[in-house]
Amino acid sequence: MKIKELCQILNAKILSSGHLSREIKSIYVSDLMSDVLTFGREAQLLITSLTNQQTIRTVEMVEIPAICYTNGKYPEKKTIELANTKRVTILVTDFSTFQVTGKLFAAGLQG
Amino acid sequence: MHLNEIIEKLDLKLLSGEVPLQTEVLRGYVSDLMSDVIAHGKEGDIWITYQTHVNVVAIALMKNMAGIILIQNRQLIPAAATKAEEAGLTVLSSCESAFETTGRLYQLGIPG
Amino acid sequence: MNQIRISQSVIERIYEIRVEKIMRTDVTRVTPETKMSELKYVIKENNYACIPVLTGEKLVGQISIEGYVDWLTSEMGDVPVSEIMDIDFKTLHPDEPVITAVKELELIGLRGLPVVENESNKFLGVICRCTMMEGVLAVLDLDDEKESKKEYNCILNNIESVSALLTLNYIVEQKSLEYGGEISSSIRTDLYKLGLPGNLVRKTAIAAYEAEINLLAYAGGGTVTITLSSELLNMEIEDHGPGIPDVEKAMEPGYSTAPDWVRELGFGAGMGLQNIKNCSDNFTIKSTVGEGTVLIVDINMEGKCT
Questions:
Q1: Which of B35, B50, B74 sits opposite C264 (nearest CB)?
Q2: What homologous superfamily does CATH list for A3-106?
Q3: Residue C213 main-chain phi, psi, to 5 deg
Q4: Could you tell me the pLDDT band of residue C176, with boundaries at 50, 70 and 90?
Q5: Can you give the pTM of this predicted structure?
Q6: Is C263 on the interface with B (CB under 8 A)?
Q7: Which of A40, A71, C225, C236 has a CB 3.0–4.6 Å from the CB of A36, allowing a cystine?
Q8: So what's the pLDDT on residue C107?
Q9: Contact between B36 and A27 using a beta-carbon 8 Å cutoff
Q10: Calpha distance C294→A14 (Å, rounded)
Q11: C8-133 has which fold?
């Protein structure tokens, strides 16, 4: 599924565009960066309520192209700047991690 | 929905506590951040997490949650397991990821 | 061992690089009258390669590190450089291929050679073993777009042929944990630039990142040294922090001494060391309480140039 379509499902706002045309193949849900470093894969969307710069660094290492921040949490300016440099897509949504995950699961996405 | 029904439908393993016949699950909550759960966790939540330390049990008890589901076959560290057992907190484990566990709960109609 | 097909264009380009492109010109020079005792700092400034001795612009001799050590252990006193310097030694010309320099250095086992103008013997610079590879890579990098990056990987095979290793050094300075990952990010970029395979770079970057977080959270910073050979990437992460009292316990998944502020940053779940180990083909950890910790991560090079 394209990032654009995910945005519609999640009623999400794009804070950093990255590669918007990228196809998202699966979803990973975690607030633990070590966990993402262990199990994260390319072409995933990371769903998390952690919004610091480490989230961008982490996805950079495992080559995850996009992050969705939940619970209406906005990242700091520095995080957005870093995401722009690293070409990582940032989405923000008011839904909780549980709701976001549920909606994407219902939309047929894989874990 | 009752917690024992969820256990059955999601094929969860009971790590601590009695089979919770009466516990009502009101909502689902997914987080690995303690501060986040302290701020947003509510009574009757079923909490899905990768974290296994003592604070997880402490917060679930403090918030009077319905129970905890540990994902990817995680086990509580011994001190946390003892604490959960003593307090009669239901701790479950799922062999699936947070995405799948949450997705299935959502499909059962549990709100977030 | 060497089953990798080296792209002809990369070989050609390495052969095309001339000494003048990568020689160091920022070396400190001395005169024949300079006292030997004054060389102490010059040796270090010149990266322990060699010290050119000049009269005017003309190279008249050189002091090698070996010559300096011989003088130190002799009882000659503080004589002028002219008494110690080598007069008959190999020099390089600016238009010679770098490969010649590599072979010469290997042959005579020296750390560096001076470069002089063909006829006049005018001193131009120094080729030293420790900065040579960086130079070669920097030159290749100029044409980054033209070549398939993966081909640079084959440089490593050339390094192997002269048994010189490429070493990358990084310093993780003590800063807020918020900045954790800056160094790992450079490591990742550098390794990709070298054309190493994605899988290897990912494993290295992940291990480096976990280690960097540990350095910042517990050890007040440290160093990361990566040595590349054709078979192995070796990464050593060293700190002079408090050390780990029970290494075995620290390796247990889920065991963590992380304070809450570390956990709130998404780390400290007791997976770091285990994760580093999982990324390695060979992993060792040495830690002494009060002295510090050294992690050694070896990752096999696989699927090179494919």
A1: B35
A2: HprK N-terminal domain-like (3.40.1390.20)
A3: -60, -45
A4: confident
A5: 0.68
A6: yes
A7: A40
A8: 67
A9: no
A10: 42
A11: CBS-domain (3.10.580)
